[in-house]
Each structure stands twice: as C-alpha cells, then as structure tokens.
Sequence to fold (288 residues):
Amino acid sequence: MDECDGKCDTCAESGSGTDPKKEMEMQAKKATEKMDKIKYKIMVASGKGGVGKSTVAVNLARALCNKGYKVGVLDADITGPNIPKLLGVEDDKLLMGPEGITPIDTRGVKLISMAFVLSNPDSAVIWRGPMKMVAIRQFMADVTWGDLDFLIIDLPPGTSDEPLSVIQLIPDLSGAIIVTTPQEVALLDSRKAVNMVKTMNVPVLGIIENMSGFRCPHCGEVLDIFKTGGGEKASKDLEIPFLGAIPLDLDVTPLGDKGMTFIDQKGDTAAKKSFEEIVDRLIEKLIG
Fold:
C-alpha cells in the first residue's frame, strides 16, 4: 500500500495528517467566495419523494437559460442523484481544470452531481450525514461555477442532512421553492418542508403544485387524478406565495427518461404554458 500523505478522507475524519478543522474552514471560505459570484441561489425542496421535484428543478434551469440567464444546477441529492439522467448527460465524466472541477455543460446549463463521480450508475452511496456535507461543500468550493445569474439546488426529499448543509454553507440563499402534489399525504410533508425553511430563516419563494389535474386528450375533460387545489390552500394556510400548478402531461415522463425537458419541446402544452407562467412569477419576485 502506498504511504498516505495525510490528505485523504480517512485522515481528515480521524484527525491525523492535516488539521481537519482548518481544512473545513478553508473550504468553507472557498465555497463562500464561489457562491458570492452567483446572484440568485434557489433551493428546490419537497417534504416527500415522488412529487416531481427534480423535474421541476431541471425545467426551471432550462427555462431560465432559454431566457438568456447564466444558470447552474447543483444536484445535492447525494444518495439518489437523478439530474444527469433528466438532462441526458449521465454518461459524462468530470474534468479537472487549473482552477478546480469543470462542471458538465448541458446545452448552456452548468451541472455538478454525485452521479458523475460514481464508477457505476448502480453504485450505492452509503454515507452518514458528515460525509454528505463534505461532498456538498466540495461541490460549492471546488467547482468552477464562474459568474452565474442563477444556481438551482436540487435537494433530496425531507428536512435532514442535505438541506441543512446547504443552508449552513449559503447564508444568503435567495429562497426555497417547495414542490408538492395535491393529495393530503404530500401536503402534510410539504408543510414540514416549509416550516423547516422558515425555521432556518430562509425565504420561501412559493409552493408549486405538480401533477394538478389531467386534461383528457380525447374528450378534453379535466380529471382530478390526485385532486387539485391542495397546494394553493396550503400556501394560504402557511401565508406563503403560490407560484402555480402544473397539470399532468403524458409526455413528461418519457421525455425525462430520454434526458429531455418538456419546457424545450415544440408546441404549447398545458404543462409547458403553466410552467412558463410560474417562471415569470419567480423572475418578477426576485428581479422585478
């Protein structure tokens, strides 16, 4: 075995080699410097999985890029990184440049994700909270983000390690978007996500209700498969903005499987139209 130089993760965790506290302080400083070059940092969160949060995150990034903004996406879901698949770059590999890690370019959107580090797409990341925070800190400090207008941070479901790490590392977050579906079980967890964000003194930019009704392509009747209106009611109860509702669209899932976003597709579907209105409201709220 080669002799350790004292800079490996094992030494950092055990306290041998370099001073781990000093290393963390230096990296946190680097992360702050990198994040200071980004105008708006937005977390996309949810209380539970399966509500389409990552789909909202990638389409938000693409929509902002299409409007001429410089955009990056930080996939903070360390154990379940899905963003590269949704953007069609899951086979790409990270490169080291003179100033750090070069993010993957996805047609103008910069992207960093744990998926690019794994040797196999099926590899499981079995880490405790401190290791997840180390990875997120590295994504901020060691990636050459450059001067961006927006950084979209896709979080895993829940209110635990990753959201807390992001909030601690970026004290000047522009805010959080909470994604939910209309049914009560999703709204119950979404309320917890809202309260977590409020407790940490992060602005709640608003709630998005995803999978809100479905218009039959044959007869035109709107079917409330998962009910509708729950997200708007929750926003009123919690006194936070309601950004809008996105109806179910039969094309969203197959497009995501192909690494394509519905916001970039030709035509004017109900989901695309609703999402464009949501993005316009968000821009108006942040920029005016």
Q: What stands out?
A: Confidence is low (pLDDT under 50) at residues 1-16. The chain is about 40% helix and 20% strand.
